[in-house]
């Protein structure tokens, strides 16, 4: 019966780790990340769930004769914000999967 005690201990550790992972994921989801482009003239904010929640444009970047530039700046700012989400997610959640060799 000694093996059952080890199994119960391992199950408790797994449950604790699962709870910590869920809490970490919830905190990430609530956090906002900002990306900028054009020297800060375009700002995009996204949540940890990768949802765009805000786009701020400096009036000087809005040129009706050059819509393509504005579109490019929005894409750059959005991608920067999403990259920050990925980096924070990997840093935060990576500590739970370190050494487990899990596929993503």
UniProtKB/TrEMBL annotation:
Compositionally skewed regions (Low complexity) per UniProt: 1-12
InterPro entries, A to Z: YbaB-like_sf, YbaB/EbfC
Entry keyword set: Cytoplasm, DNA-binding
Sequence segments annotated as region (Disordered): 1-22
Subcellular location, principal: cytoplasm
MF terms in GO: DNA binding
Residue ranges crossing the lipid bilayer per the database entry: none
UniProt-annotated location(s): Cytoplasm, Nucleoid
Family membership noted in the UniProt record: Belongs to the YbaB/EbfC family.
HAMAP family (alphabetical): DNA_YbaB_EbfC
Quaternary structure, from the entry: Homodimer.
Record's function text: Binds to DNA and alters its conformation. May be involved in regulation of gene expression, nucleoid organization and DNA protection.
Protein name: Nucleoid-associated protein ABIA69_004515
């Amino acid at each position: 019966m000694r093996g059952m005690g080890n199994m119960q201990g391992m199950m408790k550790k797994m449950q604790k780790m699962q709870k910590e992972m869920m809490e970490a994921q919830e905190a990430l989801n609530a956090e906002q990340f900002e990306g900028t482009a054009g020297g800060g003239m375009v700002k995009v904010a996204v949540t940890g769930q990768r949802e765009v929640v805000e786009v701020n444009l400096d009036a000087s970047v809005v040129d009706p004769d050059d819509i393509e530039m504005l579109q490019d700046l929005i894409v750059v700012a959005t991608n920067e914000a999403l990259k920050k989400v990925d980096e924070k997610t990997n840093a935060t959640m990576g500590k739970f999967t370190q050494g487990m060799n899990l596929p993503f």
